[in-house]
Design goal:
One of its GO terms (molecular function) is DNA binding. With about 450 residues, this protein is an alpha+beta fold. The chain contains 16 helices and 32 strands. Strands 1-2 form a two-stranded antiparallel sheet. Strands 3-4 form a two-stranded antiparallel sheet.
């Protein structure tokens, strides 16, 4: 057993003993160096000198690489690691490395579960003091950080910084794959999953992966039937918050095109439909026959009728049947002649709202549907879909007689008439018939020239 050192050096103030003279000297210096500005005390003279820089604003330690200055030497040392990439502080549990000792200390609390900072008001504990400081403001209601653009106030500087970007339009976070920019780093992280294919959130029931946590939450409700969002006006329940928001508009009589997945509003139903394609993972209802997925169970039900051939909605005028109720309603306008959707510019009326919207683009010149490959724009969504097949080479419409394929359904219809001999386009002057409308138009010019 090692001999215990004798403590020969005693403090004449508190009578505490030490084994070394230098330790006694250090002990005697505790709080002997006082700041003449604020009165704070220090045990060492160099600590007092460093402290004084906080009053004078002096920053005598400069980085030789970038020129940034610091008031404390250890801050400069820590800063230099940014340039060198050095991370001298290692976690002995998981092996992660850090450039700063305090960051390592905070990191270790992930492993230990230690939360040393406790709220005196509600008792919740935190692993970092900055998180406690933020939390306390939720009790006090303090919002000291004010926006210069709109006078809105925030409890945290980082929330204010995010908010200011809604005014400036600044998007400082750039994707290194495609160059797209984002106003928030979290949005960039989520976007990158498109390129990497990463899906870090997995369903505990079926194991399916998702790139966003709220996609997973919505998906799990499809398994459990959970509907946590309830309307405070009529008590109806919903599994998605967006569905509840959309539902509430019916109570106030407001009609807007609303994305029930992310909450974004659109002026046009077609634009909303196009936007929803970006939420591919949120299509929770999958067809067991062809694998196609849908946002709503009702859409899946309508789709399945394509496979079964079921058409439960007959027209009471002509007997024609439809697989979707809305198609029957549109069809009935043929019999009634009703055109309830007028153009607000020229007054022309249409039986379908989509046709009215499409027509309006003639006046405005608007082409809201853009090809992400070549940038070409279209006023009609289906034209964009057809155009994209030029790039992909896709020809989904196949003739069941000769096997020839086409990019557009109408081209297949015209082609089939070669096999059937069908000539539905008749000249009202001479009675001659044609397979295609363009051939009839060309023929009619002969009669025009004769006149």
């Amino acid at each position: 057993m090692a001999k215990e050192k004798k403590k020969l050096y005693k403090c004449d103030v508190c009578k505490k003993s030490f084994s070394k003279a230098v330790t006694l000297t250090t002990h005697k210096c505790i709080n002997s160096h006082n700041c003449d500005v604020c009165g704070k005390s220090f045990s060492r003279a160099d600590s007092l000198n460093s402290h004084k820089y906080s009053h004078t604003g002096e920053k005598p330690y400069s980085c030789g690489i970038c020129g940034k200055s610091f008031s404390h030497k250890h801050h400069l040392v820590r800063h230099n690691y940014i340039h060198t990439g050095e991370k001298p502080h290692h976690c002995d549990i998981c092996g992660n490395s850090f450039s700063d000792g305090s960051t390592l200390t905070k990191h270790k609390r992930i492993h230990t579960g230690e939360k040393p900072y406790r709220c005196d008001i509600c008792g919740i504990s935190f692993s970092q003091i900055i998180h406690l400081t933020r939390h306390i403001k939720s009790h006090t209601g303090e919002k000291p950080y004010k926006c210069d653009f709109c006078d809105k106030s925030f409890s945290q500087t980082y929330i204010l910084a995010k908010h200011i970007r809604t005014h400036t339009g600044e998007k400082p976070f750039h994707c290194n794959f495609c160059g797209e920019s984002f106003s928030q780093n979290s949005h960039l992280t989520t976007h990158k999953y498109i390129h990497t294919g990463e899906k870090p959130y997995h369903c505990s029931i079926c194991g399916e992966g998702f790139s966003q946590k709220w996609y997973l939450t919505a998906h799990e409700y499809a398994h459990t039937g959970g509907k946590p969002y309830h309307c405070d006006m009529c008590d109806e329940l919903f599994s998605l918050k967006g569905d509840l928001t959309q539902h509430k508009l019916t109570h106030v009589g407001e009609k807007r095109c609303y994305c029930n997945i992310c909450g974004k509003f659109f002026s046009d139903k077609n634009l909303l439909r196009s936007h929803k394609e970006n939420h591919e993972e949120a299509k929770l209802y999958r067809c067991d026959i062809c694998g196609k997925s849908f946002f709503a169970n009702s859409s899946l039900t309508n789709h399945i009728r394509i496979h079964t051939g079921e058409k439960p909605y007959p027209c009471d005028v002509c007997g024609k049947s439809f697989s979707v109720r809305s198609n029957l309603r549109k069809h009935k306008y043929i019999h009634t002649g009703e055109k309830p959707y007028p153009c607000d510019i020229c007054g022309k009326s249409f039986s379908l709202k989509s046709n009215s919207t499409r027509h309006r683009y003639i006046h405005t010149g608007e082409t809201p549907y853009h090809c992400d490959v070549c940038g070409k724009s279209f006023s009609v969504r289906c034209n964009l879909t057809n155009h994209k097949r030029i790039h992909t080479g896709e020809k989904p419409y196949t003739c069941d007689i000769c096997g020839k394929s086409f990019t557009v359904a109408s081209n297949l219809t015209n082609h089939k008439r070669i096999h059937t001999g069908d000539k539905p386009y008749h000249c009202d002057i001479c009675g001659k018939s044609y397979c295609q409308m363009k051939d009839l138009t060309r023929h009619r010019s002969i009669h025009t020239e004769e006149r």
